[in-house]
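Q: Here's a chain of 47 amino acids. Please give me its 3D structure as tokens.
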Amino acid sequence: MKIKLIKNEEKGIKRNRPKKLIETITRKGISLTAIYLYSTHLQYLHF
């Protein structure tokens, strides 16, 4: 039973890794888009 639990935990870790990567990528993307929108907004204010 213990061996099966360990194997399941390993599978869970492997499955969660891509989710964490996607989360970090989306967070970086959101921050980049926010900066981009903010910079464009400043440009519009200057005009």
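Q: Can you summarize the key feature?
A: The helical segments are 2-46.
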